[in-house]
């Protein structure tokens, strides 16, 4: 027997499985990568040697209003390490700068004060200005034109009024934007919900290039990069983290060149060959990305890439926040015909009429049309998952038993401990 250990919330779920049933364990080599220096030193080195840009301290000279876009509570960005160094770099040449942290909530709920405290720490919370972006607050948004796709580009007014706009974030594989980080701080990070919906339309989500690890020809990425250019995002600090959420590499500099350098590094670590199996076990990498079902599209997409048609996907995720959004959940509540009905409805929606969160419903429906999905959680109402079309279990062992009844008790199993971290 061998023990399978899968991230779950801030802990793990485990199960014992006969060794001969394991087809493969697919992991990013980031988990075994040995960084060249300590976390803070890696950040320091990247700021001292930016890619395709002058140093941040030089860009900050003479600027009055400086806005630093920071990721929200759903992203495991080690801001406590990054933000102090960004502030020190700016203030080394511009001690009087008016600096504001703008939280890139995108389409998510607002971060709570406790979540911001956990992210920034006491010192920054007490001494710095922090504003949480609201994608529906029209009074604090400004229309600056059209995206290449034709959608309206409406962005946070505070960002557009900045003399210098910079961002922090992290780079990982992303299921339809190719990679996270870089330009994503702008779109979807600090734009209007209208802009997010135009970018996340059914046509783009279904596009063959809108897949994990792909930037070239990806229509979603093209829109995002254009938005960052129009917002005049001048400088980024993006990190790469391992399974323990520790920094293993840092990239700072030009919004495009530094991001591409980071994506190449991540791709070299994250690409794994698919090992098709009748049962695939995965997760969303634990907290903070497994707080709701809405976010599970990430782990499910990785499992989808290596699960045989008609096979079973088991995903371990706390989902302590439930479904993750009323508009997302409504798709399943109002679809007695299940995944096929949802897919038919969504694919008929014009780009300009995209409905909030339809993209997540579209991806989950796509997975459900090909596979049985079992959600393993003891922190979420199982009826929510059942309404969405998933089966449920309280333990990984119970899920494996159910999967065995569907796919066969001796069927092969591919394990992807962290579905967010790999490009299958």
UniProtKB/TrEMBL annotation:
Residues 8-212 form the LarA-like N-terminal domain. Its EC number is 5.1.2.1. Residues 272-424 form the Lactate racemase C-terminal domain. Keywords: Isomerase. Gene3D superfamilies: 3.40.50.11440, 3.90.226.30. Pfam families: Lar_N, LarA_C. The keyword Membrane does not apply. It comes from the Bacteria. One of its GO terms (molecular function) is lactate racemase activity. This is Lactate racemase. It comes from Sporomusa acidovorans (strain ATCC 49682 / DSM 3132 / Mol). The gene is larA_4.
């Amino acid at each position: 027997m061998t023990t399978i250990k899968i991230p779950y919330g801030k802990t793990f779920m485990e199960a014992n499985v006969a060794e001969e049933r394991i087809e493969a364990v697919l992991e990013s080599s980031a988990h075994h990568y040995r960084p060249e220096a300590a976390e803070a030193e890696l950040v320091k080195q990247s700021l001292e040697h930016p890619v395709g840009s002058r140093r941040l301290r030089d860009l900050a000279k003479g600027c009055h209003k400086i806005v630093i876009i920071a990721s929200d509570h759903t992203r495991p960005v080690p801001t406590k390490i990054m933000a102090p160094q960004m502030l020190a770099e700016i203030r080394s040449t511009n001690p009087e700068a008016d600096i504001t942290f703008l939280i890139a909530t995108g389409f998510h709920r607002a971060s709570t004060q406790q979540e911001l405290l956990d992210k920034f720490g006491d010192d920054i919370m007490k001494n710095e200005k922090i504003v949480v972006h609201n994608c529906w607050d029209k009074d604090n948004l400004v229309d600056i034109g059209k995206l290449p796709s034709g959608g309206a580009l409406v962005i946070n007014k505070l960002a557009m009024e900045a003399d210098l706009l910079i961002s922090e974030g992290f780079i990982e594989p992303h299921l339809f934007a190719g990679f996270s980080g870089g330009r994503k701080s702008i779109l979807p990070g600090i734009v209007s919900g209208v802009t997010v919906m135009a970018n996340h339309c059914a046509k783009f989500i279904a596009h063959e290039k809108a897949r994990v690890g792909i930037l070239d020809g990806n229509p979603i990425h093209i829109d995002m990069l254009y938005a960052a250019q129009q917002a005049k995002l001048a400088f980024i600090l993006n990190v790469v983290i391992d399974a323990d959420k520790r920094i293993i590499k840092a990239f700072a500099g030009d919004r495009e060149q530094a991001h591409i350098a980071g994506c190449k590094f991540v791709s070299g670590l994250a690409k794994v060959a698919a090992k098709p199996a009748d049962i695939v076990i995965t997760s969303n990498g634990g907290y903070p990305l497994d707080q709701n079902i809405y976010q599970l599209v990430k782990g499910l997409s990785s499992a989808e890439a290596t699960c045989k048609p008609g096979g079973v996907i088991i995903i371990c995720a706390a989902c302590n926040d439930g479904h993750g959004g009323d508009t997302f959940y409504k798709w399943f509540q109002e679809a007695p015909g299940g995944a096929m009905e949802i897919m038919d409805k969504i694919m008929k929606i014009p780009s300009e009429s995209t409905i909030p969160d339809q993209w997540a419903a579209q991806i989950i429906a796509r997975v459900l049309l090909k596979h049985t999905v079992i959600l393993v959680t003891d922190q979420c109402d199982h009826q929510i998952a059942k309404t969405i079309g998933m089966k449920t279990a309280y333990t990984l062992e119970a899920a494996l038993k159910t999967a065995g009844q569907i796919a066969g008790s001796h069927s092969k199993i591919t394990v992807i401990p962290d579905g967010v971290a790999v490009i299958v």
